[in-house]
Specification:
This protein has 449 residues and is α/β, with parallel strands linked by helices. The strands form three sheets. Strands 3-2-1-4-5-6 form a six-stranded parallel β-sheet, sandwiched between helices. Strands 7, 8, 9 and 10 form a four-stranded antiparallel β-sheet that branches. Strand 1, helix 1 and strand 2 form a beta-alpha-beta unit. Helix 18 runs antiparallel to helix 19 and helix 19 crosses helix 20.
Length: 449
């Protein structure tokens, strides 16, 4: 089986390779050929050096090939894993810094920063989808490119349900909640509903019984894990659900913005500088690329959402959350389920169909899905609380305005494209003024393509 990774020079690529190395399942459905595609040859060389050290002593390790030619990378692929970052970390740093200059949230996928990232990324993602349709029409596409829900919905307009979006936030939340209850995370069932980076865990079912009310009633257990510390027991009990960590930017927006503005660097600026050091070291040809990567990864995980943690008491992440895995294991589980027809239930970004009442059938939602050889099918969620549905509808309007802006033919309908982009920014709940939205759009210059 051949897996092609778009963005194969990305920092988290060794996590995917680690998951492939640990796959001891049926050889017929195991990845034997891994193709890395990136536009930056230097990054590819650095990551290949890390992967070569990972593969030492592993005779069944997938063969690795790297290329900067997209069609060559796609040809013969059974699965395509998309993890691109258009504009690199320098682009992310701008996405975050420009809104902060206007006093609103600057974050990679949430608020104005997320809209800017989407406007820059969507045209590239759509061109990639068109090449997949032409060169590898039978391939399954697993999308991790952020903003994942927005990008998945746009790519589905070209490739249909063969595009499945993934994120590691929901599974992390579910597993932490189960552990707080003293339950085996792999034996529990989870009722989760939302959009990417905007979802809520509503039930944790262990041996046929929903134990979330028990968790909500136990302050010590509730505040023993990340989401409990971020949101606090009082607010979680008021909600009656456990929100995805990214909802901290909505529920505690003023505190989050203040903490980010007071930090010496945004997350994007920190990662830009940190990873530049890693790529210089790993790309030098000297031994020890894997060790340099692991040290950088641990620092990255330890500082994840540091500003939000600072705004809620300055606590440290638990050791079990520093492993860095998550999305890589989800991707592997999807490939296993489809290639081997092994049924699995996973929280994924897929076309709604009729799973979430109140959203149209083509809206990409993040819900539990049944995955097998036929792909991923969303499971019915039942009624959604009005406050949750309201936020989902608002964000879906933002996503679709961004997609409209990105799919408007450049140079011919610039007024329409700008109007859609302005709407995407100004309609976002975390942008408090149309004038602010306009200034952010002008400063970013993302419509020039």
């Amino acid at each position: 089986m051949r897996l092609t990774v778009l963005g194969g020079g990305g920092f988290r690529m060794p996590l995917v390779y680690r998951a492939l190395l640990d796959d001891t399942g049926d050889a017929a459905g195991r990845c034997t050929d891994l193709v890395l595609y990136d536009t930056d040859r230097g990054r590819l060389d650095a990551i290949r050096a890390v992967l070569a050290e990972q593969a030492e002593g592993r005779p069944t390790a997938p063969a690795v090939r790297a290329t900067t030619d997209l069609d060559e990378a796609l040809r013969g692929a059974d699965f395509v894993f998309s993890a691109i970052r258009v504009g690199g970390l320098e682009g992310r740093a701008r996405d975050e810094r420009i809104p902060l200059g206007e006093g609103v949230l600057g974050q990679e996928t949430v608020g104005a920063g997320g809209v800017l990232y989407g406007l820059r990324t969507l045209p590239v993602a759509l061109r990639i989808a068109e090449r997949i349709a032409a060169v590898a029409p039978d391939a399954w596409v697993i999308n991790f490119t952020n903003p994942a829900g927005m990008v998945t919905e746009a790519m589905q307009r070209v490739l249909g349900d063969r595009v499945i979006g993934i994120c590691d936030s929901p599974v992390g939340l579910c597993r932490r909640a189960a552990r707080a209850l003293g339950a085996d995370p792999d034996r529990a069932g989870y009722d989760y509903v939302g959009l990417n980076h905007l979802g809520w865990l509503r039930r944790v079912v262990v041996d046929g019984r929903d134990r979330l009310p028990e968790l909500l009633g136990d302050t010590a257990a509730l505040e023993s894990f990340e989401e409990g510390k971020l949101f606090g027991a009082e607010w979680l009990r008021a909600l009656g659900a456990l929100p995805n960590e990214y909802l901290h930017y909505y529920y505690f927006n003023r505190e989050a913005v203040a903490a980010i503005r007071q930090a010496p660097a945004t997350r994007g600026e920190f990662l830009r500088d940190q990873q530049a050091r890693f790529y210089r070291t790993a790309g030098s040809g000297a031994p020890g690329a894997l060790g340099a990567w692991e040290r950088t990864r641990l620092e990255r995980e330890a500082t994840y959402m540091a500003e939000s943690r600072e705004a809620t008491g300055g606590w440290e992440r638990d050791s079990c959350d520093l492993d860095g895995g998550g999305y890589d294991r989800i991707a592997l589980a999807i490939m296993r389920a489809i290639a081997r027809d092994e049924r699995a239930t996973l929280i994924l970004n897929v076309r709604n169909r009729t799973s979430v009442p109140g959203l149209d059938e083509d809206a990409v939602v993040e819900v539990p899905c049944l995955v097998d050889a036929g792909g991923a099918r969303p499971l019915a969620t039942g009624a959604v609380a009005p406050d949750q549905l309201g936020l989902m509808l608002s964000l879906k309007a933002v996503e679709r305005s961004a997609i409209e802006a990105a799919t408007t033919e450049p140079g011919t309908d610039s007024v329409i494209a700008r109007g859609a982009a302005l709407r995407a920014l100004a309609l976002h709940p975390l942008v408090d003024s149309v004038k602010v939205a306009g200034r952010i759009l002008d400063a970013a210059g993302v419509l020039a393509r």
